[in-house]
Amino acid sequence: MATGERAGCIGALDQGTSSTRFLIVDRQARVVARHQLEHRQITPRPGWVEHDPLEIWGNTQQVIRGALESAGMVAADLSAVGIANQRETVVLWDRRTGRPVHNAVVWLDTRTDALCRQLAAEGGPDRFRAATGLPLATYFSGPKLRWLLDRLPGIRARAEAGEVLAGTIDSWLIWNLTGGTEGGRHITDVSNASRTQLMNLASLDWDPEICATLGVPIAMLPEIHASSEVYGRAVAPLAGVPVAGDLGDQQAALVGQAGFTVGATKCTYGTGSFLLVNTGPRPVPSRHGLLTTVAYRIDGHSVVYALEGSIAVTGALVQWLRDNLGLIRTAAEVETVAGTVADAGGVCIVPAFSGLFAPHWRSDARGVITGLTSHTHRGHIARAALDAAAWQTREVVDAMAADTGASLTELRVDGGMVRNDLLMQLQADVLGVPVVRPQECETTALGAAFAAGLAVRVWSDTAELAQSWRADRRWLPRIGAAERADGYRRWQWAVTRALGWGDPP
Asked: Cα Rg for the chain, rounded, in angstroms?
């Protein structure tokens, strides 16, 4: 980049479930450089998913250096850095040595199922929902922390003394970026904290009663801050750069989609899919299987809340077709193969590989394929995989309409699967509303950059950021209401066949 073009550039660290990326975003909200590295998925037992925090931190340093080198820049050229991260994934580490005491337990991990059932038996599945907006589920961080504290010898006493620190991935990265054992900041933001099942949505602080019930010492937890504020300055490889933004990845995508008005809705298609609708300055309780969560908070402004529908498996189903069944050679090939048929031929796939998330929250669900006949071939299976992503999204959109009393008028989309034009058309068909893809689909990274840029006044306010959002393509529905209703009934029938497999008779 030329010297003049570097003014106002922001670094965005996007730490996801499968990889870590560093992107450099200019003042016009364009991505000018990026570097990405994958990390290992550690599965010691069925249903258990772990990551190595040291591997993630090592990759973080590498991708930062790689993006800077690609742009011909140095750290001093960046005005700030923001972070977006896989949520609900927890790390415990030694404050003195800086070394993790266990692998990170990933949001997909189901090892806390028995604990969650025990807690639900004692007080109901919604015993913490009024305070946290979340049902009891293996998804969230609090039960994961309890599981680790119960099983790692001597850790609980050290945690109560503040010798062992806990946090989601953002806390681990910010601690290391700001100095680690040499004065690193132990913090998180309200969006990530709202996913732990330990933060009270009203006070925006750790809930003492819930922490005590779950047996999680508050002394080990990070300070909760706004999503956009200067937390401190980084050490190498970003020496001197203000660390100024922190958002859970799905909230970051909402910010990156300029979802700053009440009713703005986005869906991110990745390993799973995640719909968020901005509900404004008051939390909206859900009665239809959604999560009430914090969207973001800009320093000096009121917190903004959201309703979220979390779908565990969408992109992961395509990976399964590729890696486990060998039906496709690359993830992108699923569109070509699915396009060889006019429809799924009556086949439905319900990809409940580790239960169903919103709006069902059934940990006993397992994946099923229904409607197979001798006529079925791989084109029908590929098409059914795309249908599954679309119909699961429809279920969540209907739940959002029931909770908010407002119908969806447009869905903004992002994530790896939105380059699949067939899926986007199917999504518009099953929703009956336009689906819009932005010119810059790196919305998670954009959200992190926007949060950091607002904190250091690269952008003056959210209205300026909203003007930078530009549409790339819009899909309109092509099927009628009757065909849409028939397809939905078939999908809902298939879902009933996926239930009850966790503990069959």
From this structure: 22
